[in-house]
UniProtKB/TrEMBL annotation:
Region (Disordered), start-end ranges: 148-188
GO-annotated cellular components: cytoplasm; nucleolus
GO BP term, example: RNA processing
Organism: Planoprotostelium fungivorum
Compositionally biased tracts (Basic and acidic residues): 172-183
Residues in A to I editase domain copies: 60-385
GO MF terms, alphabetically ordered: double-stranded RNA adenosine deaminase activity; double-stranded RNA binding; tRNA-specific adenosine deaminase activity
Name of the protein: A to I editase domain-containing protein
Amino acid sequence: MVEAEEMSQRSMDKMAEMTIQLYERLAPKGKPTAREWTVLASFCLLQKIEENWTPVKILSMGTGNRCLSESQLNKRGDIIHDSHAEIIARRSLIRLLYDELRKEGSKAIFEKKDDKYNLKDIYRLGMYISHTPCGDASIFEGPSVEVTLEETEEPEKKKRRVSTDDSTQETTQKRMRGDEPQNWRETGLVRRKPGRGEFTTSMSCSDKIASWSVLGVQGAILSTVMSPLYLSYLVVGDYYHREALDRAINLRVRVEGLPEGYSRRHIRLGHPVVVFQKGKSAATTDAVSSGYAISYMDGGISEVTVAQSGRKMGLTKKNLDSPKHAPSLSKMKLGLMARQAFGCKGETYIEMKRGGVDYRRAKEVLLSSSEFREWNRLPSEHSDFQIKPI
């Protein structure tokens, strides 16, 4: 296990401040109204300055906290399934990395070793989230945090709907222990993101961040040209509970026999003083979560999507199914960027992912461990679409 050095409180605060200031500079489009709230997340580049790992640049950012249910998914790869801020920020980071490789600008923060790009030793990767991640990190003694992330439903209504018989759910997926109402307060379980009376296919943000401590944040496709890009620091705002977060992100990850180049990383945790004023804790009691998601990557490129449909904001009915108008963070668009950036092989998106052989082996090791064995795997047909010029 590899553990990052401690980060000062000043650096934690600066990471939050830089993210919030960048968010505030964005246009109003897609931001919460007066009676709405959202979650904000970012990936930040840190550099050692005067013996402290200090944030120097926000690489990517995302807002949102909604997720499509299984019946809303399609097999074309042209919509965004998971619009939680953490995932939007991560996909924006991947998009940035593709863009950097395409422009060969990656040399600024990466260096090539053994035919793969590696983050230079003078840098570290950090992440800020304005609200504790959904899933295991949100389960601790005190007010229920898991329910606060679910759009507007009251706990009892949610409980009655989720506990209905399987026959009413119209799902092809197996029930997981974490899906059962009697297990909602049990710690250490992997869980799917909450839906509105129907299962989602996406694992919780706690589970996904935990997986990055083994696999890196770069994903399978980038792993063909890049060594694992590991997260060193995680700074969390509202509803921060150190023990629960440490359990969810670090302590339940137990793996052995990883392929060469992969290792388990212990992510350093922290809590900033600064508060995101458009978050849940600062909102009025009758406020609801925003229905939009904003993505941003370094260079000033941003996009707003409708989280309930996974499509770009402002599309006309005529353009809804047009590949040209698919969100930039959709699998289809990211696959096209991968091909343009480094000639990634494979006719389909799933073939591109299969090129990351060691990444897939590392993922199998992780998902074979007792804590992650129930991980929900989306059927391959959802990634079996062609990547072709638009």
